[in-house]
Amino acid sequence: MTDDGTGLMTIGELARTTGLPVRTIRYWSDEGALPPQARSAGGYRLYDAASAARLELIRTLRELGLGLDAVRRVLAGEATVAQVAAAHVSALDAQIGALRVTRAVLSSVARRGSTAEEMTLMNKLARLSTTERRRIIDDFMAEVFAGIDPGAPDIRTRLRFAAADLPDDPTSEQVDAWVELAELVRDPDFRVTMRRMIEFNTADRGADVPTSSSLWFVSRLVRLAGEALRDGVAPDAPRADVVVRELIGDADPAVVLERLTAVTDVRLARYRELSAIVNGLEPPADHQERFGWVVAALGARTAG
Questions:
Q1: Model pTM score
Q2: Mean pLDDT, range 100-116, rounded to an integer
Q3: How far is 276 from 302, CA to CA, in rounded Å?
């Protein structure tokens, strides 16, 4: 204490009382968080017991990571400690989320041996905000479903078109899948292919529409082709005629082949697989082999 009977402390005495360095106290004082209660005749800063208590609060808030602006607001009564803490928690959550994404990107880079260019792209796409990532998928969905009136109300679910987005703590595999998915859905050619497939699967089964134009047909194809593959029936074998007739009825094989070829692009299966990985779901069943068998069987019956 000073010996003038005021009970005030110099900055050095305050430092000894609180255990904080003089330099730190002076900095906080200069920044307006700890204004002196008075000045000595020589112009030195003087502090009282309330200053020591204020200093302890400043130290606690700073150790919790709050910036001096937030500290000043609390000390000035402009915000409560609870309000500032809640805001700080939100900021920390965002930082933690960014760090998790960074960790996943670096893990992927280390595992894949990515080039600097690939790493830059991965980091850029993975660091997009949730809103920005969702916009990429929403824009894609809006374009490929534009004007479509699905025959079944759950068409998007049945076609596994769940919007994909990275979780808060993504794995390196999910980052890989998201980056590939983001590039895929922005490809104009893939959008045309996806649109064609959706039109194929959502067409109404009216009297003048072949049975090969509905989800009903696809499920039937999977079953019949699966049985043919299991039994070792070659697509060009006479036994395949029975399977083809059961599948398409009286429809023209050439017409069915044209429509079916439009929806057997391997990228469609890859889209579903990537979406499942990003969403943390089991990859959907891959029926490419069964579609391939039917395409080959129809091709054998339309050749020449």
A1: 0.54
A2: 74
A3: 37
